[in-house]
Amino acid sequence: MSVSFEPQIHGATSDVFSTLAPGGYEQVIYCQDQDSGLRTIIVIHDTTLGPALGGIRMRPYASETEALQDVLRLAKAMTYKASAAGLDLGGGKSVIIGSPDDKSEALFRSMGRFIQSLGGRYVAATDIGTTGEDLTHVRLETPWVTGVPPEWGGLGDTSILTGLTVYLGMKAGAEAVWGADSLSGKRIAVQGAGKVGMHLMGHLHKEGANLFVADVAREAAARAAQRFGASVVPVDEIYDQDCDIFSPNGLGGVINDDTIPRLRCRLVCGGANNQLAEDRHGLALEAQGIVYTPDFVVNSGGVISAAADLRGAPLAWAEGIARRVGDTTRRVLARAHREGIAPSVAADTIARERIEGIGATKRMLVPGDLRHR
Fold first, then answer.
1. Of 85, 165, 242, 345, which is least packed with CB atoms within 10 Å of its CB?
2. Other C-beta atoms within 10 Å of 150: how many?
3. Rounded (5°) CA angle 138-69-33
4. In 3-state terms, the chain is what percent helix, strand and coil (to 5)?
5. Tell me: the pLDDT tens digits for 293-342?
């Protein structure tokens, strides 16, 4: 039987709202299904532009607090990502507390029932720990899911377009740093050889970049070495790699007080979500003379693919939107240079301006509107 449950809160209930208010979150839902073992948190950050889109992440979090902190940050980033990409979508995210080794059809169908109960306010996709096959089980319970395989009517693997948009964002970053967007001969340290990292390295290899790769899964790094001639670097040494570009493509929070002094690059550009452990780390990169292409701008291929799914649009439509990401990245970097601010601040500002502008038009009423309400 599926039931909702309340999180274990220490202190007054008002403390929860005090925590959520500064981030502008609309809804946080804790759910569990004891029969399937599902324990999930779904967060809807902002639906000003449209329904909240965000992947289902599955990880063995050490605590509910850790899971909540992760999903809150991810949901807010999705709002900004959709806005920066020019999509009529809001931001959300969900996390399943558990090991991907414990997946089952029942678990994901239960997840689908909870998503269905939200009536389209939240639309799911894949994320770390989940696959398109997992989403087919979710789809059996709700239409509010994207990224299912083509035989299910979807556009399939969203990481393909994400690899493309990171590549285009990296070329824009290279142009800002070196005056030309060519990546031929550039030494690029790729952290994470998962789905996005592999698609990205395919583009980079084709252009003639020199690749260094590290991944906690040795077999993934070995595949990159075999396919692209990448040099394998120990996981704990990738930050120290002498390179032109550092590309984080795994978990978030890797740009922090400990790693920034170790970076030996001119540009940071990758597909991982929430690469900055804290907002101030964007300023720290700027102070160290390292250009940062904001993650939610360059890794927007997945959300663009999902938007096409929702519209029933073909892959060609999604690819057309994805190819604008290079120009969007240039616009962010140009504004940062013009206003003397960090690129992370410029990207946040551009995303918020669109949300606020569209939100203002939605609040405008003409007399005829009232008759239809």
1. 242
2. 11
3. 35
4. 50, 15, 35
5. 999 999 999 999 999 999 999 999 999 999 999 999 999 999 999 999 99
DSSP symbol at 122: E
Going by their DSSP bridges, the two strands 90-97 and 38-46 should be labelled as: antiparallel
Please tell me the predicted confidence (pLDDT) of residue 189.
98
**Rounded Cα–Cα distance for residues 94 and 115 (Å):** 10
Q: Is 353 helix (H, G, I), strand (E, B) or coil?
A: helix
- Tell which CATH classification among 3.40.50.720, 3.30.465.10, 3.40.50.2000, 3.30.1460.10 matches the domain 160-302+310-319+324-355: 3.40.50.720
**Residue type (1 letter), 243:** C
Contact partners, residue 148, CB within 8 Å, separation at least 6: 132, 135, 136, 139, 154, 156
Quick check: 4 pLDDT over 50?
no
Given a cut of 60, whether residue 365 has pLDDT beyond it is: no
Common-topology check for domains 2-74+90-153 and 160-302+310-319+324-355? yes
Longest dimension (CA), the chain: 66
pTM of the complete model: 0.86
Question: What are 311's two structure tokens?
Answer: 């519209």
Query: What CA–CA distance (Å, rounded) separates 78 from 341?
Result: 22
Coil, helix or strand for 151? helix
pLDDT of residue 12: 40
Where do the structural domains in the chain lie, given as residue ranges? 2-74+90-153, 160-302+310-319+324-355
CATH fold of the domain at 2-74+90-153: Rossmann fold (3.40.50)
Active-site residue list: 93
pLDDT at 14: 46
Q: What percent of the chain has pLDDT over 90?
A: 83
